[in-house]
Amino acid sequence: MRMYNPEWEAIRHSELISPCTDLQFDLEGSSIPADHGQSLYDALIACLPELGNLAELAVHPVAGAPSGRDDTLVLNRRTKLFLRIPSAQVELALQLCGCQLETPAGRLKIGSAKCRPLLPFPELHSPLIVLGTHDEIEFMEAARQHLALLDIQGVGLICNKRRTIMTPAGEYSGFGLMVHGLSPAQSLRLQERGLGALRERGCGVFVPHKSIKEVALD
């Protein structure tokens, strides 16, 4: 459980506001491909082609439970679809409500939506970041360089296991990453900008994580 920190709680209720937001959609369906970054993006664009024009679009990986098959995740009634977009584009993205998404693992229906503003947290995690290398040492060095370009330095990094994503251009590989010791401004900046390629396919999207230890052991 996350320890209560009065200083951070005060910051979360301050005027430190991000120009981006997470739009949370209800999602109906029974399953989704385990490697669903590409198929989910394709299905979203098929429903709302204008999303393809949003350079800042990030699609969160959908959380599902192992099905016993390596290629499929099981969904339940609490499963949500999250898009991270500029707040000014919320009205556009709301057109997805009611859409049917066709995926290789079955049909998904997008339900109602609500905004979840980005909040600063000192620890953030992304399950897959693509930085052009499958070597862990090279990946960590590239991550530090990319973070420095975002003026994020003096933070701790924990590398997670190697993962892959398949796209029409071929297979990409990368690693999960925990970044901890972030300042409030750094935290929001990293959530807004992400890290690496293929954010619209679920890569390099950072979310708060409750435990450094859990990520280190993953």
Descriptive notes:
This protein is an alpha+beta fold and about 220 residues long. The protein folds into two domains: about 20-115, Alpha-Beta Plaits, CATH 3.30.70.1890; about 125-215, Crispr-associated protein, domain 2 (Alpha-Beta Plaits, 2-Layer Sandwich). Helix content is about 25%, strand content about 35%. It contains six helices and twelve strands. A hairpin with a 5-residue loop joins strand 4 (about 65) and strand 5 (about 70-75).
Give the helix/strand layout:
Blueprint: H1 6-12, E1 20-28, E2 31-33, H2 37-47, E3 58-59, E4 65-66, E5 72-74, E6 80-86, H3 90-93, E7 100-103, E8 106-117, E9 123-129, H4 136-149, E10 156-167, E11 170-180, H5 184-193, E12 207-208, H6 212-217
Antiparallel strand pairs: 1-6, 1-8, 2-5, 3-6, 4-5, 7-8, 9-11, 9-12, 10-11
Feature tags:
single chain; 218 residues; alpha+beta; Alpha-Beta Plaits; 4-stranded antiparallel sheet; 6 helices; disordered N terminus
Most strands sheet: 5 strands, antiparallel
- Tally of extended strands? 12
How many DSSP H or I helices?
6
Q: What's the CATH class label of the largest domain?
A: Alpha Beta
* CATH fold-level assignment of the largest domain: Alpha-Beta Plaits
Structural class: alpha+beta
- The CATH architecture designation of the largest domain is 2-Layer Sandwich
Please state the overall shape, judged from the principal axes of the Cα atoms.
globular
Strand order across the largest sheet: 3-6-1-8-7
Question: First CA to last CA: what distance?
Answer: 17 Å
Q: How many independent structural domains?
A: 2
Radius of gyration: 17 Å
